[in-house]
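lol ok so funny story. i was supposed to be doing the assay writeup but got distracted and ended up predicting the structure for this chain instead. priorities right. anyway since i did it might as well share w the group, maybe its usefull for someone
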Amino acid sequence: MVLYRYGPWDGTQAVDPFTEDDLMEHLADRLLDRGDLQSVLRDMMQRGAQFDSGRRMGGLRDLLDKLRQRREQQLGQYNLGSVMDDIQKQLEDVLNTEREGIEKRLDNASRQGSGVGGQGSGQQPKVAPESGDRESGPTTDEPSNPRPPTPDPLREMLERMAQQHLDKLDQLPPGVGGRIQALQDYDFMDPDARRKFDELMETLRQQVLQQYFQGMQQALGAMTPEMMQQLAQMVRDLNDLLEAHRMGDDSGFEDFMEKWGDYFPDGIENVEQLAQHLHQQMAQMQSLLDSMTPEMRQQLEQMMEPLFQNGALQDELSDLMFNLGRMFPDDRGESFPFSGDEPVTLQEAMRLMGDMKGLEELEQSLIEAAKVNDATRLDADEIGRLVGDEARRMAEELQEFVRMLEEAGFIKRGERGMELTPRAMRKIGERALEEIFGRIDRGLAGEHSLSRYGWGVEQLDETKPFAFGDPFAIDTYGTVMNALRREGQGKPVRLSADDFEVWQSSSINQCSTVILLDMSYSMLHGGRFQAGRKVAMALDSLIRTKFPRDSLKVAAFSYFVLPIEPNMLLDTYWIDPRGTDFPEAIRVAREMLGKIHGGTKQIIMITDGEPHANSTGWGWSGFVEEGGWSMRQAMEDTLREVGRCSRDGITLNTFMLDTEPVMTTFIKSLTRLNSGRVLFADPNRLGDSLIVDYVKNRRKVD
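and the output, tada:
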């Protein structure tokens, strides 16, 4: 047994943004307007959907807008001109440490030389008399003649060396790159300054290498000479692998990844993917360079030159860049116009280049998804990382909504792509019926009775005296009471034929209908065909749910007549809008009804045009007068077919969506000949008129 616990929403519970019913209702509304499932699904994929429940599903266009807003936000936030600021601060700290160290050494040397008994003081130390001396009495010190200080060669050498180092520091270039190059050959006097400079160089070296070989941070560790040699060997093997790939041999890929796989991220399955990954990483560095001013680009290039003292590694990296450039000759990094104020470090800038490149690739993925109407290949996690959690949710919804419709049994995959299931068709018909009943008197929805009573399928609460031919549905209580009122009290109660009381029943008659739907050009372009299609689906739903004994068939007509099943109404492949062959359409409908025995029979013709005839089978040429068939002939043929309908007991009801005078007169003549009805309806109110007419005017034919 499953237990459910209910409580107030506190903001932590997950709430589905929409349900299968939301999707189906939206799908039904759009299909009734357009009738093309593929177009509606494409529109939902690209534009999203606003559901009646108030929920909303974003589309690919919304995702693209968010992505582009994110890119503009990034460009307007960061300042690449600050990339070197952090390195400049660390260099200043190195230089200050060196200067302070030099001054400290000079100060220490000076104190040692000027102290009592210190070297180079120029004075002899006083010696106290020994206790064993025979001289006694007061003594008088003889005046001493001070001698000049004795020069100290070591101290002088230290001073000269210190001055030389200070001069070199004063002569350093102003730029970070030039300073780093100059300090590579500088002999630090202060060990702390040397340590700080070495740490800075190692940090920069690791940042650059990790940009090229993303995923190898754990493998690199400390950049010892041994590690540099190992890295050089890895790049050498990589170059050999790429060269072999160029010659068509990828047999060494698995051995290479077995040996050096720790230097690369997971998921690389072949040489092409490996090369593409490396190229993207190097393109990001190129993008950083191209996005800088010429002066800053020069500084960064100067800074990077001395990072690799291992000549073999430098050579192999140069060969690697050449090999990748040969594989991707037209794919360089792109510059980005950053204009913000927020400073970034070099490491942050390189990561930012990766994000900007990722946004570009993601934009192409979204555009491609819009072209093929398929979001399943989108990387929702990457979208979330680059654009945000809301964008990730939107991507997941786009990937899920088609699957939700499939699992709910509303659509399925067929030969022409996605197709509607019978369950979906029922939902769409119900939706059409709800829309129509939402505009008309709901009291009409259940009205299906006749003005007289007879044998039917529904027993009423009223009774009546039995008459010959009535069903023998006896009201026992009423029958006995009739006998008692006639005979009075006493036993036995004797019944006569006049005492019998029977239950009345409503006469629910059977009605067979054929809808003739004009699919001419004027119907298609005025939205009239869509209105007729919606009405046909609503009537089909009404009959199935309210009047199961009735039957409905549909035929579309232009220069030919095509009987179609209700589930074909939302397809478009069969539509051919040339002409309006009234006589042939009425003839086909009459034959369809002729196969049904009993009940009321009617033809509902929905049109806005004038009749043409095509009885000769000449196709489109038969519509014009030169082909032998004038408008008068078409009208005469139409009246002839209507007369046959009248003889067969078939009523023709016409719903005109135009009020052209000639056609109005002609259609009215049909009603006089057939005793049918003509209703002039606006396409937007066609459903109201037709459904009300159907419910109120059904009659039983004895």
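DSSP finds 24 helices and 14 strands in the chain. Residues 115-140, 215-221, 441-457, 615-629 have pLDDT under 50 and may be disordered.
back to the writeup now i swear
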